[in-house]
């Protein structure tokens, strides 16, 4: 089985040409006349009282136009997607080293930086809490008024105590996963431009323009209609730019100085202030009968929330939901707690809690398979969900064969290519497989509005608009390809409008693998009314019955006359008054009132081969094969890129990456000490096999693939390492020391 | 050729009075500039000459987003001071396009060698540099040449395929 997705001849991304020529202006590339540069003063301490802030010297520095503190925030001095608990500018307390205390606008970056040094803040250092365990102790001091528990969630079914008593094999383990940096190559930044009437335009990347507008409106005390958010394109986001970052500071400074203000984080600034993937400790006890059928599964999750909430509760809920993955487990008990600490803020990150929990779940299956002496594929088959089974929270979901499809696909690969490498004196080779199930959309009980707009604009273009952003994922291709397919026009006829609250409809956030779904579903609702509208009008203009006409490349065509359009879109629009159709709907959701429960799921399976170097303890991934079930492929390059790129991001998570904190300070702050995979560390060939068939009668179309390629990689690599040297790793990233210790203890080196 | 004369003050420094004279050629245009001695090449290009193709992602020579040619040699523009390129020829991604786009750019388009595009100008310069000295690189050559260019989106698959498509077509032409 090789990659089965190939781009149609010559088809390139709409943003392709501008990207390969370097001409694309990212929002951090923008400059405006009279523009100032902004900088933000962040706390040097992870936990301290602010005794006083004196900005007198800073404001007197030549070139400095404004120095702002909490006193200058006109509206609510807080932000946060779920709970607004993060101060824009801290008043009396700082809770982590990224907390903002003041901000400056000046004529040069250097002047702004110098001004930061002249701001006199007197702090009184407080003791820190740098682990969730410490925060949960009864005597621990409270980081927030409500205590140190940010969120708790649980799910249970059956009776695990009784079930464990009947188990023949039980495995219990604690899995530890690190804090991961998104490492989008474009750090956060942009420009806020004051407009004539007291309004502002915010040019800064985000994953939901309308939500930024809402949050900024609260902070600035400015009506939403006076805030325009231009939020696309971005140099990567992966969840990391979902929450506000520099926008409030640039906006406050632009309003204070009445001049455009640009803030573009340096990598170090980005490192200290950006959200990260939640570090978690996951303790799992799983028991099966003699044949490998799981009877009981008990999961306890502790997540390090860092100082503030952002989307943390939803991430934990997602982990809880996916604790059983694509398996049917009759007795299950899952509980999780997300705990405030003085560490860096954890938040939304591609995979959204699915990566962590799937590593634990799939590893448990592999360990049980070893204990029971069954094949890793076999144990998964025994427990696998069927197409019409309920979802992992007992909720009804769109029927799907995805789990079986990807497992069968992986099985074929496994049987064909297992053991293609032979061990040598210093090297051992191993193969691992894993599968994953991943919910798309925000889940039951969450406002998940979707929608789009289609019109024939005055230039005679078929204009399609969504309130979405192009972060790099390939949204523009998806939109273009779908419009061409559904309307019948050519790609030259299509104009795509996204990422600007002044002109786009509300589509919800470009997160949760929902973009492709929303675009496809919107078009299903828009295409017929749109075609009818245009054809009705064209029929009148041409004095022909509507039924004899259709929309084609360049204009309206007659079935009779095939030489070219009888009416170009430009001609057609001239007397057309009512040229627009719009739709808004709720993202498909389970009918069962189970909070957070998803309805649409995608599935991914992975097979990897690794080499373990017995002398250095280094693990090298030699091949990755993905099998994905997420409905039809709309944009082959984009699909493949998302799966391959997601896979490598998780290869980094498994082998290299950890945003370590020591005493609540980041140890690494740039790519010299925080290593993400480079080209030398990745397998040269990756195969992506897409299973496009949806379950019979499925009317929800293609699912997004932004996340599914990231999930199953980790457990597959960990299993491959075990296959190579017999070592079960439970803590990421896999450490060479641990591998070497294992090699030594087993006497695997001949000369020792 | 245009002769461009400009005095450049540096938004990255306070010492506005001090400047030094620079004469250099960028993408076949000659420039005579007065620049602050503390300005980096990348800031000169991006912030003053509006050549925004090269990007800054790490600022410390680890990611390659700022890659340009100085006298045909691939360098990280974030690690060079502007005065160090006095008298030299600089080529940025903007200078690769002639009548049509370069074959490396074409290959990236065709093979999907990018997603967000932020690493792309640096990648393309690096691939260009590799292929100009080694038209048919092996896996090891490619890995060595590109190890200093980070991409967070693609996992490098599309980039590798773009290079291989060029290497292969070169072999085909030679045969
Ligand atoms: S910005 Fe120059 S190497 Fe990263
Ligand atoms: S395409 Fe986004 S970093 Fe390479």
Automatic annotation (TrEMBL), chain A:
The keyword Mitochondrion does not apply. Pfam families: Ald_Xan_dh_C (PF01315), MoCoBD_1 (PF02738), MoCoBD_2 (PF20256). GO terms for molecular function: iron ion binding; xanthine dehydrogenase activity. It is an enzyme of class 1 (oxidoreductase). Keywords: Oxidoreductase. InterPro entries: Ald_Oxase/Xan_DH_a/b, Ald_Oxase/Xan_DH_a/b_sf, Ald_Oxase/xanthine_DH-like, AldOxase/xan_DH_MoCoBD1, AldOxase/xan_DH_MoCoBD2, AldOxase/xan_DH_Mopterin-bd_sf, Xanthine_dehydrogenase_dsu. Residues 21-127 form the Aldehyde oxidase/xanthine dehydrogenase a/b hammerhead domain. The keyword Phosphoprotein does not apply. Its EC number is 1.17.1.4. This is Xanthine dehydrogenase subunit D. It comes from Lysinibacillus telephonicus.
From TrEMBL, chain B:
SUPFAM superfamilies: 2Fe-2S ferredoxin-like (SSF54292), CO dehydrogenase ISP C-domain like (SSF47741). The keyword Transferase does not apply. Keywords: 2Fe-2S, Iron, Iron-sulfur, Metal-binding, Oxidoreductase. It comes from the Bacteria. The keyword Iron applies. One of its GO terms (molecular function) is metal ion binding. Residues 20-96 form the 2Fe-2S ferredoxin-type domain. InterPro entries: 2Fe-2S-bd (IPR002888), 2Fe-2S-bd_dom_sf (IPR036884), 2Fe-2S_ferredoxin-like_sf (IPR036010), 2Fe-2S_ferredoxin-type (IPR001041), 2Fe2S_fd_BS (IPR006058), Beta-grasp_dom_sf (IPR012675), Diverse_Oxidoreductases (IPR051452). PANTHER family: OXIDOREDUCTASE WITH IRON-SULFUR SUBUNIT (PTHR44379), XANTHINE DEHYDROGENASE SUBUNIT E-RELATED (PTHR44379:SF7). This is (2Fe-2S)-binding protein. It comes from Lysinibacillus telephonicus.
